[in-house]
């Protein structure tokens, strides 16, 4: 979403959402993805149950805020209920003189939902969030060079990468950046990177911390572009990124992250082809994006490159990778689907 499209009044924007259909339900029923439109433009709205508060002061008001409590069952000393989080009775019954104290208490209550909006969305977004069969594929160096790399090149056009370059060059989302090294916004420093909260993090629950690291180098699309010569750069970047995250949230008390409470990985295939890393709390409950076949540990990749045979030009383009793809993805419809059927992939390198 570029600067011109950013909604200034989120409530007004969301109220204009016109529902078309329930596109997906996942995360054990805790997340819904709705397809619809806003101002006649296609939109995706994701509604996810928000995390509970981690502070004692916030947790202390939850029991009295429970409403619509229904009994599910009981056995000996065990009881099961369903309930909603409303306004604590001592707040709803407070006098005007108590308003300041009541408002402070109400502010401790956690939000019910975390909401993500993609507006306007395109067909690629809809495919990504549509339920689909997941396939395990094996990508040989030959298959990558002749069929996958040309497809990736098609997705690394200037137009498709503009939103990333806008961030790197200081035009958009600067208020979200939690760390930049170096501090300039030239956007193409070979040693530079920036960190910002992942769109799927609520920005306060440390046990589910998720940070996105964007490098300023523009010659890397994915882990396939990493070479042995990149090992010193990767080691230094990993060290600086983790250190910056720890330093940024060091005031979070007992829940503050430490270097050994964080894990760092990259996706293959990634959602977009500008090299980036994910830094997350190690204690966070893994989801599909951290699963085998999607997430590749950055420290392990560094070790693999470091011990790989060959010269400085040897790299991840020379190894066989097994990962997962959805049947609605271009990779499946244009490459792996045809290969499974014994046909020629639809997209090939001119010299293949």
Give a quick summary of the entry.
The chain is an alpha+beta fold and 352 residues long. The chain has helices spanning 10-15, 56-59, 62-65, 89-92, 99-108, 123-129, 141-154, 158-168, 231-248, 298-307, 330-340, and strands spanning 18-26, 31-38, 41-49, 66-75, 78-85, 113-118, 134-139, 179-181, 193-197, 210-215, 262-267, 276-281, 295-297, 321-326. The longest helix has 18 residues, at 231-248.
| Rg over CA atoms | 23 Å
**What is the multimeric organization of the chains shown?**
single chain
User: How far apart lie the N and C ends?
Assistant: 37 Å
The share of residues in helices is 25-40%
Number of discrete helical segments: 11
Mean pLDDT: 86
Q: Biggest sheet: strands, sense, closure?
A: 6 strands, antiparallel
Tell me, what's the shape? globular
Count of distinct strands: 14
Largest beta sheet: what is the strand line-up?
8-9-10-12-11-13
Elements, N to C (H/E): HEEEHHEEHHEHEHHEEEHEEEHEH
How much strand? 25-35%
Poorly predicted tracts of residues? 1-5
Q: Structural class per helix/strand content?
A: alpha+beta
What does this structure look like?
The chain has about 350 residues and is an alpha+beta fold. The protein has helices at about 10-15, 55-60, 60-65, 90, 100-110, 125-130, 140-155, 160-170, 230-250, 300-305, 330-340, and strands spanning about 20-25, 30-40, 40-50, 65-75, 80-85, 115-120, 135-140, 180, 195, 210-215, 260-265, 275-280, 295, 320-325. The protein has 11 helices and 14 strands. The strands form 4 sheets. Strands 8-9-10-12-11-13 form a 6-stranded antiparallel beta sheet. It has a 4-stranded antiparallel beta sheet with strand order 1-2-3-6. A two-stranded antiparallel ribbon has the order 4-5. A hairpin with an 8-residue loop joins strand 11 (about 260-265) and strand 12 (about 275-280). The two termini are about 35 Å apart.
């Amino acid at each position: 979403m570029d600067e011109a499209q950013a909604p200034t009044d989120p409530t007004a924007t969301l109220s204009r959402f016109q529902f078309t259909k329930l596109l997906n339900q996942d995360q054990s029923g805790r997340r819904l993805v709705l397809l619809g439109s806003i101002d006649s433009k296609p939109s995706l709205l994701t509604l996810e149950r928000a995390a509970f508060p981690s502070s004692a002061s916030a947790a202390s008001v939850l029991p009295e805020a429970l409403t619509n409590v229904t009994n599910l069952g009981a056995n000996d000393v065990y009881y099961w209920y369903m309930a909603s989080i409303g306004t604590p009775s001592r707040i709803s019954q407070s006098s005007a003189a108590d308003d300041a104290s009541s408002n402070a208490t109400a502010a401790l209550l956690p939000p019910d939902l975390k909401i993500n909006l993609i507006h306007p969305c395109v067909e690629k977004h809809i495919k990504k969030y549509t339920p689909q069969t997941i396939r395990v594929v094996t990508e040989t160096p030959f298959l990558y060079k002749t069929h996958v790399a040309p497809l990736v090149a098609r997705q690394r056009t200037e137009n498709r990468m503009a939103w990333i370059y806008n961030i790197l060059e200081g035009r958009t989302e600067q208020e979200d950046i939690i760390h930049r090294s170096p501090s300039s916004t030239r956007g193409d420093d070979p040693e530079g990177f920036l960190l910002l909260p992942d769109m799927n993090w609520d920005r306060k629950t440390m046990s589910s911390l998720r940070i996105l690291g964007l490098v300023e180098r523009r010659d890397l699309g994915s882990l396939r572009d990493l070479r042995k010569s990149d090992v010193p750069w990767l080691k230094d970047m990993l060290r600086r990124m983790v250190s910056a995250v720890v330093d940024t949230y060091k005031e979070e008390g007992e829940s503050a992250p430490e270097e050994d409470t964080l894990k760092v990985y990259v996706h293959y295939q990634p959602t977009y082809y500008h090299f980036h890393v994910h830094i997350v709390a190690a204690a966070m409950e893994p989801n599909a994006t951290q699963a085998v076949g999607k997430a590749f540990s950055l420290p392990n990749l560094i070790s693999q490159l470091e011990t790989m045979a060959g010269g400085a030009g040897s790299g991840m383009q020379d190894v066989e990778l097994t990962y997962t793809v959805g049947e609605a993805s271009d990779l499946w419809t244009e490459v792996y689907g045809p290969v499974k059927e014994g046909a020629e992939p639809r997209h090939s390198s001119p010299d293949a």
